[in-house]
Write the structure tokens for this entry.
Amino acid sequence: EDITLDKSITIDLGGNTLTVKSATGIKNTAGTSTIINGAVVSTVDDPVYSTGGELILGSSLTVTSTSSVLWAKGGTITVAGAELTGTHATYVAAFAEQGGVINVESGSITSTSSGTITVGASGTVNISGGSVYGESSVYAAVWTYGNGVFNMTGGSLESSSAALSVTGNSTANISGGTLQSQASFVIGVYQ
């Protein structure tokens, strides 16, 4: 069953597993909601989705998907201790666009075979702690395009390919943290 969060609430999974069977199965539309202490498992696209308010993925929480893990489209998703993993061969683990914001404060976002985070048109990604890791030898851990904005003040960004790819009119502001690449370059800038 789908869960729509439209007010401020904390969901403690009590160490249990929530299986999401439809895209945008956990959808935050308003308020500030927090999910902690358990596992969210999915085989569909974007099981965690925010169109308004803020959804906080907190401590002792794992979120895994055989597709993409989360999508911020107009709302905010904050990773604050959770461990997120996407395993799809061509989908990124996380996507921010159309006013959507992804904050990585602690915890991690990992993609085992594709890019990790895409920052699309009018999207923003802020990394102040935690880690973002991409195992792809082709895709950057974070890719920005359109007028997407990437801000990094702490944490780590690592990839088997480039750590960061900045294209078009997008912006990258880096004042702290660690960027690492197993490729021949760490940051790629393309027009």
